[in-house]
Amino acid sequence: MKKIIHKSETRGLANHGWLKSYHTFSFANYQNLERMNFGALRVLNDDMVQPKMGFGTHPHKNMEIISIPISGSLSHKDSMQNKRAIEVGEVQVMSAGTGVTHSEFNDSSSEEVNFLQLWIFPESENVTPYYDQKYFEKEGRKNKFQTLVSPKDKLVDGSLPINQQGYLFMIDLDKDFKTEYHLKNGAYFFLIDGAIEIEDIVLNKRDAVGIYETNLVKIKAKEDSKLLIIDVPMHF
After folding, report:
1. Which residues form the Quercetin 2,3-dioxygenase C-terminal cupin domain (predicted)?
2. How far apart (Å, rounded) are the C-alpha atoms in residues 232 and 66?
3. Residues with Cβ < 8 Å from 143, sequence gap 6 or more?
4. CB 119 within 8 A of CB 232
5. Helix, coil or strand: residue 57
């Protein structure tokens, strides 16, 4: 078993006033050669966007982009004619493929938006761009692994497809609940909230650990917690 521990305070930070963004991996002006990716997971940004502010129209190509709101609502508009808001409880997937442009905006006049954005390297390049989003019932992740995203050729019922052999799971853990996670590839455990113990490693809010070269890990919640698991190929 191999482990890579990333404590919350070691992330890169970009504070633009209207946007505060914590970068788990090298991104924009934060460059760290030791933190370029975890397998096929290239970007994990923890973004906070101020009211009436947002990202103007910008391009993407050949990347699987996944957005998960933590609080607030984020408006999305893209070159595929999608124009929708992403709410808490929803997950958005966009396969950029041959190329798309999109914008993201906080329409609220008073509430900050906090969302996670992940970039995963695709399994094949120059696919036809794809977009979807879905609301996931919280009952489906109470002390069990809820599949948010899975490979398009091995799609788990009820999940969103991506162009890679990767999976995203979310679980809401009650205090003292114990469980086991069976790895498909390498798994990056990002604690959104709470405190947990994974294989004797204690994670607090926004801490993470990447684990690979093993089949199973044990998880125990030290308090009520919300955990995101990004299971991706280590070689692709």
Report:
1. 148-232
2. 14
3. 171, 172, 173, 174, 177, 179
4. no
5. strand
